[in-house]
Write a structure and sequence with these properties.
single chain; 262 residues; alpha/beta; Rossmann fold; seven-stranded parallel β-sheet; 6 helices; 34% helix; globular; binds nicotinamide-adenine-dinucleotide
Length: 262
Amino acid sequence: MDYKKLFDMTGKVCIVTGGTGYLGRENVKILKDFGATVVVADICETETRWEETEKSAGDLFVYCDISKSESFRNLYQTVYERYGRIDVVVNCACFTCGAGAGSNMEFMSDEVWSAGICGSLDCVFMSLRECIPFMKEKGGSIINYCSMYGLVSPDLRIYGDSPQRQPPNYGVGKAGVEQLTRYAACHTAPYGIRVNCVTPGPFPNPNNQKEKEFNRKLADKTMLGRIGKSHEMAGAVLLLASDAGSFMTGTNIVVDGGWTAW
Ligand SMILES: NC(=O)c1ccc[n+]([C@@H]2O[C@H](COP(=O)([O-])OP(=O)(O)OC[C@H]3O[C@@H](n4cnc5c(N)ncnc54)[C@H](O)[C@@H]3O)[C@@H](O)[C@H]2O)c1
């Protein structure tokens, strides 16, 4: 066995939703570094939220709004027509509704609740439904992003008024993603499609890292005593995307510095 070749992505066509974002862009980079053609699917091509403005590093950008079925349909059709195959889909994009001051569950409206479930869970369902027909013939790998808050509740005592305070619909949606991953893995196994998820722990982006005191509290909740660095999610994604993960399906890789293990 040539173990180095197990991670080789040459000839594979990969799509990363949210590939412009903080963690998604690292997924794009590692898949490209290992030889894949990578399509970034997002509502914006350039990240402007942070001091460094950076364009996503993919081979192709396709506008995709993950709240809309037709946008996913257009994405997969466009990529298939252009490259003739879709080997890997990383469902990384997500949007929340009701974070920060609006997160109090006693005051959350039905509309905000539903919008948050759309941004965390419905979008993954729509993506799966629309991409599976394009992957059935050759097989492939689908990787869904969960969250540590799909496994455990946020410890609301440490959040105070932080804008990083997560609403209840976020974690509920992410917990659903883990289960949907198992169901989809079972459904697609006969076609040679593997479906897995990755679960990030605390990876505050450069803006959120400015809240120094709050980030100390986040760091203290991990066994390793620090927050994650954005590139530290990428290895798990490469493992699941490549032949190195060829016997893995229906599972979840947790990358959280030990947050959920004590
Ligand atoms: N960063 C963390 O600490 C953390 C922790 C747990 C889970 N996660 C999960 O990891 C994934 C990536 O998180 P991140 O920190 O990179 O987030 P991010 O906000 O940096 O990136 C999200 C990306 O999704 C895109 N997006 C937003 N709304 C969209 C829409 N309607 N259609 C298409 N694209 C849209 C944004 O433009 C952005 O590029 C998410 O699923 C998130 O829930 C992150």
